[in-house]
Amino acid sequence: MALMDDAEHPVPELWRAKFAEIAAALAAGDFQLCKSRVEGVEPVDRETAEHISANVAAYGDRLAPLDEATWHRSIYRWAGGYWEVLVDLSTVSEPVSDLTLHADVCEADCSRLKIKSVHVP
């Protein structure tokens, strides 16, 4: 169950598979999630996808499917009306990189999600 307080919490188990699907799509270069439809994820607009692509390219390492170690650093917190989620992505060289997926989860069961960005905070 997702908590609705001001504290940061580890990403709930229930949400992790969806974020793993998103990370796999990004690792495949599908920054708009057009080819890899992930249920409940809002379409990523072209401008956001281009921004994500540029940030990944600038990082200098290719994305990879999520390593289990990412869940030790990834967090969420209640933002009043939705949960802000930060998932540290995996790269070919790093099981947990500094590149972070920023998303908003609108339903406690993670059935509605919006990708905001991928960048180094």
Automatic annotation (TrEMBL):
<dbReference type="InterPro" id="IPR056085">
    <property type="entry name" value="DUF7668"/>
</dbReference>
<protein>
    <recommendedName>
        <fullName>DUF7668 domain-containing protein</fullName>
    </recommendedName>
</protein>
<dbReference type="Pfam" id="PF24705">
    <property type="entry name" value="DUF7668"/>
</dbReference>
<feature type="domain" description="DUF7668">
    <location>
        <begin position="24"/>
        <end position="121"/>
    </location>
</feature>
